[in-house]
Amino acid sequence: MRVRVPFSDVDMHGHVHNGVYFSYVETALNTFLREAGLSGSFDPQRNDVVYHVRRTEFVYHSPAGFEDLLDVTPHVSRVGTKSLTFAAAVTRAEDGRPVADAEVVWVCVDRRSGRTTPVPGPTRAALASAAAERLAPAPEDG
Asked: How far apart are CA 74 and CA 40, in angstroms?
């Protein structure tokens, strides 16, 4: 996902406020799931499970400011028994320089009981496939 930093995301120092990166990553992650055809797996109206954010971690490398173009690239990094871990890189669009790295852990919860539960098999398989596609070597140009 590419984002042009709006003025409203900049703090008094002229940098993107550190908390805004959470929104960038969440939007990119939802876009990734939708484009991979997986958003239905996470629709609480159609499933007996929901996903809650358990943990987020950000590592900031360099500041970004108003009008900067940033690329936010999420991927599946781990499919656990009861949790899903996603990672995202935030880089400058013009030169690929790192701005921030994020890790987001979702825990699978039974909607009715509120207790953790195993990630459903179809969701697990789809995300494992998405992770494998990311790690597969790119086809050579013929």
From this structure: 18
What pTM, to 2 d.p., does this model score?
0.86
Q: Dump pLDDT digits (tens) for 45-74.
A: 777 899 999 999 999 999 999 999 999 999
For the residues 100-106, what does the mean pLDDT come to? Answer: 98
User: Maximum Cα–Cα distance for the chain, whole Å?
Assistant: 54
Total count of residues recorded for the chain: 142
The dotted CATH code for 2-135 is: 3.10.129.10
Cβ 18 vs Cβ 12: under 8 Å: no
SS3 of residue 61 by DSSP? coil
φ and ψ of 10, to 5 deg: -100, 140
What are the sequence ranges of the domains in the chain? Answer: 2-135
